[in-house]
Amino acid sequence: MLLNYKIKNFKTFKDEIDISFIADMHIKKLLSNTIDVNNQPLLKVVGVYGPNNTGKSCLIQALYALRLIMLNEQHIEFYNSFFDNHITEIEATYEVDKRIYRYTIKYDSKNKLFLYEKLEYLKLSKNNNLISEKIFLRDSSSIVIKMDKTKNFPTNLISHNLPLFMIFKFENTSLEQAQQDYIKFAKSIDMVDMNSNMSVKRSLYLIQNDEKAKSFITSFARNCDINIEDFGYSDNVVSDVDINNLISEYDKYDINSKEILKIWSKHHGSIVPSVLFDSIGTRKLISLAGYIYDSLIEGKLLLIDELDSSLHHIITRAIISLFNNELNNKSQLVFSTHDVLTMDLRRLFRKDQIYLTDIDKDGNNKLIHLSKNYTSRSDNSLRGNEDVADYYLKGRFGGIPTPDLFNTIYGVLNDE
């Protein structure tokens, strides 16, 4: 699980941004929205709200960049291209099986070079303060590895294009557990872009190979789409109507076989292939269901960009509630959205679960934490039970779109 994440010089974010999953102990409401880890409550869900082009998607991508870097997976350049600085700085504090680590890097994503890398083991003192113990440190001159004994390596003997734990396998040393935890945490980070042409591969695989997953996904689809009388999967392609002229539709989806036609839905008494007859929103729900199931069962950190894309407000709210639910004790969700109706501090969110993106007077993207920037005692006081969506739409938390579209069209028509 993720406790804290800091990143600097990432795409549109020049200055350091800090995302904390450590719950504010002063907030006593909706304790079911937190998970206890080593006597420290962590947030299950974080929501990011803001106008277009203020960095919501960049923030989701920044969190996923952690996985890409840690596992040396393919990625594009993600430094801030508006400034002559290719170095992105990242610090992540994470927990695996009650062991807490802090991972820090300075990374050149243009040249794919690790300029600085450090891993620490953190433990709580009697006063609940975190005490750090260095596991390894790599900089431009040397690599210091603490195993049974501290060892130093000249940095020119080790590739700067790979993270240290992707270079060596530390078996039968004190680093073995730390390396396993590092890989387990990195692989737990998953991302969905709701604006993309989402693939149903994961849901399809789960339906075919996991009976519990199949039950969850089919039930999920039936509950989320009121126009579907029934939903399921059959080993044989089933349809009560002629679909031969629709086969060409395959090319629009990331599937190279007829397996996708085996996912069916029932409308007005007729069974048809879901991918050919259901709406974009319904197909996205089917795709999303696999990610949600994986996350809740396997204990993953699920990142969803534009959660509300093609989905009804009530469904978006229900998905958030799945993760805030007290039955969830090992999974986290971070999402971006334009749906301010979910910005509900009375029934859905704690104040420390909401972040806002905006642009400052110098044109730089910034991140605002509702709990830290709008305390009950500040000039911009916010106790946590107000109609926060109404406050947001009135511009109390920063810039909101103010389009003057009437004058835009008036000017065009008037010229005519």
What does this structure look like?
By secondary structure, the protein is an alpha+beta fold. It has helices spanning 56-70, 176-187, 201-209, 211-224, 274-277, 280-298, 313-324, 370-373, 388-393, 405-415, and strands spanning 2-8, 17-20, 34-37, 40-43, 45-49, 87-96, 99-108, 113-124, 130-138, 142-146, 150-154, 189-193, 230-233, 263-267, 270-273, 301-305, 332-337, 354-359, 365-369. An 8-stranded antiparallel sheet has the order 2-1-6-7-8-9-10-11. Strands 12-16-17-5-18-19 form a 6-stranded mixed sheet, with helices on both faces. Strands 13-14-15 form a 3-stranded antiparallel sheet. Helix 7 (313-324) links the parallel strand 16 and strand 17. Helix 1 packs antiparallel against helix 2 (176-187) and helix 4 (211-224) packs across helix 6 (280-298). The protein starts with a strand and ends with a helix. The mean pLDDT is 85.
